[in-house]
Each structure stands twice: as C-alpha cells, then as structure tokens.
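Hi everyone,

Forwarding the result from last night's run.
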Amino acid sequence: MPLLKPFCAWRPRSGLEHRVAAPPYDVLNSEEARLLAKDLPESFLHVSKAEIGLSPEISPYDEQVYATAKDRFQFMRDAEIMLCDPTPRYYIYRLRMNGRDQIGVAALASVDAYLQERIKKHEFTRPDKENDRTRLASTLNAHSGPVFLIHRHHPTIEALTTQIISTTEPTYDFVADDGIRHTLWVVEDTQTIQEFSDTFNQMPTLYIADGHHRAAAAARICQKRRETSPKDDSPQEPFARFLAVVFPDTQVRIFDYNRVVRDLNGLTPDLLLQQVSTIFSLVPANTPVRPTVRHEFGMYLSGQWYSLKATLEPDQEQDPVQRLDVTILQERLLNPVLGITDPRKDTRIDFVGGIRGLEELMRRVDSGEMAVAFSLFPTAMDELLAVADAGHVMPPKSTWFEPKLRDGLLVQTF
C-alpha cells in the first residue's frame, strides 16, 4: 500500500493563482467569505463556501449550497480557470510567514493507511463539520482542501526539495492578502518522482496536523463507495486517496489555541476567583498574560488579567494526554467549575487561534459577548507526536497551525 502517490492536479491557469487560491473554509464565517470573494469571481470560496452566492438566509448546510458548489467547480474547469496536469506529479509547496519558511510536498495520501492508523490522528472530529466536508467532497467528486500532514524529518526529502527549489523556477509565487507568501514548484522528472515515492513509502507513519475533518470525510466517502461498488474495493481506486501536503516536523510551528466562555455557570466573578485560587496558583497581572512555560495560563475576567499556574504529580507528567495544558484547563477548571463537559459540542465555549493575539480575547470579553477568556502555552510538537504514537487523542482544539494552506491551489478529482 503506497503511503503517498503523485497525482494529476487541477490547478489555476497561470496568472490566476492569486485570485483562485482561497483561505481554508473553516477560518472564515460566511459573511467574511462573502466580503472577501465579492470582487473575485474566480475565488475558490465560491466552491468551498458556496453559500456566499446564495441568500444569507439559506443555511450553509442546505442542499442548494452543495449543488451550487458543484456548478461553480464545473464552471471553473469549463472556463479554463483551472486546468488539469496530464501526468501524475508531486508539488513542492513553500509557505513563508514573517521570513520563516515551511516547505512541504503535495501528494495523495492513502485512506487505507489512515484507517489502519499508519496516518495518525490526534483529535476527534465534530459530526457537523465532518458531515459538511463529506457532502461537499462527495458532491464535487473532489478533495479541494488539503490535509496538513507531518513527517519526521528525513534527509532525503530535504535534499530533494532543496535541489528543486534551488535549481528550477516556481510555477506560482504570490503573496496573499494576509501577507503569507505561497510558492509552488511542479515536479515532473520521473526519477525525482520515484525518489519521493520510495522515501515516503518507507516511512512507518505520518501524522495529521490540521484537517482531521477532511481526512475523516475522505474515509467515509471511500468506505461508502466500496459498500455500493464492491468491485472497486482497491487501494488503487481514486476515491481511496485524499489530498495532502506533508511537512517535516522540524519546520512546523504550533500556535496557542485559546478559550473564551460565554458565562460563568451561575458564579459571580468573585466566586469564580475563589474557586480558581483553590485549583491554581493565582496572581493578578498588570499586563496581558501570554504564558511562557508549560502549565501556566492567563485568565481575563472583568477587565483584569490573572496568571494561573498548575502543578502535576509525577505520574501525570508521564501521561502524554494528562500533561497537556489543554487537558489541565479542561479537567480542572472548564468542566468542574464552568460546566463545560463536552467542548466539542457545548455552544458556551469558543476557541481563538493564537494568531489573533490576546487583544481578540480581551475584545470578546469587554464587548460582553463572552464572560471570561483563557490564554494557553502552545502545545509542543513532541507532545503532539507522543499522543498520536500512543494511540490517544487530545482535547478538541489543542493545536493551531500557521501559516494555513490555501484551498483551490491544488485539487484532486476522483
């Protein structure tokens, strides 16, 4: 079973890449996407968030949305806004953020490897988001948003990507509206393609960083089509693969993923402080608290920041899940004190990527939308890999990855 394979990507016609490539579907709400794509008829948001072309009263999960997405994707191909490569290739995808490079290889990953946990996950999925991506991909017969995978650093992969970048001109090279530079090289040389395949397929495991819902959706589509067409029960079938970009663990950066809670579960601010002080070491702070070490947290309540610190028993420090700061906050405070028993489904909690800064936490509390906010120290890469290797999962929204891969830059059809 090949872990990764080259493929024939549908991708923007040269010169349109900066207009087609769009932010991931899940970092924008419908209104934000509508505004961003208003003057960009080529934007892939018209496919990945097709509700923007319909009345705002229509639910993003209405059947019209998926039908519209299918029509828009077909239009982009018919109008040659997107073209398909004639032979299978790998694609080198470099993201540059604040002068820092992250270089990955775009390929098709094996659904069977995912089902057999050779491609490891570290989070559960939310049913509504998984259903949405399943319906979209099944309607399109395409995976358009890549799953962000991680491999442990390998010198051969590094050497191959370095050689391609240093000796060939990129196919695309543009700076998106968020300041991230996206550069893509198409790998056509058959010997280089084979070297990539041989090296990747000898790796014991890959890890999902971002895109758990897209990977789960691909697995559901594959299993459903195998059930309805048993003759297609083969890892070589196009639907037995999903679009991915795989990066070395040494280049990937994880940001903090912070929490805001809508109410205090019936407590007054003073009572919350009393309870929190029995669980953590609590000290008022004169400035916003961005934790600098593990087991330190910031709490913003009634216009005041506090620094919280936790201590763990030795056996807890040895457990890959129990030692996570997201676990500590959930099990010691969010659940027992604020009543957030299931953060995957509870509408009283929301999650704010660290890229938005502490100012976003303060804004949401000061506006009255939320009652309290918590800042966390980012989950470390070795913590993520340890949880995945142990076959465990983290609490929801444990990791926030930046920079984000663009939708529509490469599309896999099946």
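The chain has a mean pLDDT of 95.

Cheers,
N.
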